[in-house]
Amino acid sequence: MGSMISNYIVIVSISGVLSALLALFAYYKKNDFAGTRAFILSSLTSAIYTFGFALELSGSTMPEISFWIKVEYLGMPFIAPSSLLMIMYFVGLERLIRKGLVTALYAIPFISVLLVWTNDYHHLFYQSMYFREGAPAPLIDVVMGPWYIVQGSLTFGCMLAGMCLILWQWNRMKRVYRRQLFTIFIGQFLPALGAFLYLMDVTPYGMDPVPVIMSITSTLYIWAILSRGMLTAAPIARENLFESMRDGVLVTDLSDTLVDYNRAAADMLQDLDASAIGKPLAQLFLPAGQDAVDYVMNSDPLISEERELGWNMNGETRYYQIRSSPVQKYGGDQVGRMIMLIDVTERTLLQEKLLQLATVDSLTGIYNRMHFMELSRGLLNEAAFSLAPVSVILLDIDFFKSINDRYGHHYGDIALQHIVTVCSSHLREGDIFGRYGGEEFVLCLPETSLKQAALLSESIRKDIERSSISAISGPIHVTASFGVVEARGKNLSLEDLLSEADHALYTSKRNGRNAVHVSSGSSITPFTPV
């Protein structure tokens, strides 16, 4: 046997060993890639094929060589269909992999195995086999039968389909995933090229170059698995999911520099495009407003957290829920973090609207009675411990019914809004102002004595008296009556204060209206500014 054939056998044997190791490595490696089983089957059948071919080359008689050819066909017909299934999983087309497709892909290989092992009885696969003349060793040539063409068509069809799927996804993938795509493409292209050259009878002594080529592709696969994580998951399927998410996703390194983002994030952040890769996250969040920048500057990439931020988007305020979680590589080392942006604007605005309906009077825009009572009780509890004075003012529009009767309810509503506007101009931050009911309003004033509250009431009364409401028939003059009381001990409840203020208010009503009366607990007196 010539030295060239011997060297060829060694190379083919090495190829078989690499394919077997690749199948074992993929089997024992923990991963979440759904196409792993197809990849293992492809590698295992490649090992059977190449070992059978090596033994074929070492044979010296027709029966011996014919037997090892039969062994080769226990593996070779299944390689291309298995590779195609693996590629379909890789590019995210697993939804197309159904029982019918798998059956169709493997039916022909199983028939081929049966026909090869029984070929002496029907010659459907090989019409004849003979030794090649002038070869340095016993090498077999064959005359193809009809099923040989069927099997060859399936093999080339699967390889071509796999390469087309890869090219179809090429421009859709980020650069980081293209190395894996290229490796798989080479793993399909080189064997297909070798098989084509073999069929065209342009290889040395007509020997099949595919087993030797598989030593190259197996080495590439091992490199891709070890250095590129090719079997850790289906990157393209993951990329499709990543890009189809409605929520924005940003991936940063440990220094909060952007390394990846999806399409939804580009819609949420101004000027986010490919040129943003490598920029600090704080710079990208700057147009979103101070809240967004503060989040980046003060959050810890090592800690998972969730918060809601107001977000400036083209002059409009949006609300995003921000979820941040660390990103770890295999082994547990942290390499960055993932930030998810969830648009909760509609939910937040609805919550604000519901809160407003529950706490704010819809006509006047100030607190309703229930919320006023809740806030004022809290204020009184705080004042009881600090011994700070708290006063309550109750006021009522004079002759309000006559305004409704004479001018209509529309002007009655305007009168209520007018009183709120006048009162609000006198209030401080921290004062609590609410609509007590109908045409009655109430104020709870922290750190305000009885005299200070009475002076404030008098100022408001004068402003109401001096102002008017414009109507078609002429100006409408409005006045109001006031009752003022101060909390004088820890045990005095809000209800007690309001009852005292109410008595003072109706004293103002009974004494001519448009007046301020104060209650000191034991007596109610008119307030006259000095």
Automatic annotation (TrEMBL):
* Keywords noted in UniProt: Membrane, Transmembrane, Transmembrane helix
Q: Which GO terms describe its biological process?
A: cell adhesion involved in single-species biofilm formation; negative regulation of bacterial-type flagellum-dependent cell motility
Q: Which residues form the GGDEF domain?
A: 388-521
Q: Which domain of life is it from?
A: Bacteria
Write out the transmembrane intervals. 6-26, 38-55, 75-93, 100-118, 148-168, 180-200, 220-237
The family database entries (SMART domains) matched by this protein are listed as: GGDEF, PAS
The PAC domain covers 303-356
InterPro entries per UniProt: Diguanylate_Cyclase, GGDEF_dom, HisKA_7TM, Nucleotide_cyclase, PAS, PAS-assoc_C, PAS-like_dom_sf, PAS_4
Q: Name one GO cellular component term.
A: plasma membrane
Supply the name of the protein. Answer: Diguanylate cyclase
In which organism is this protein found?
Paenibacillus riograndensis
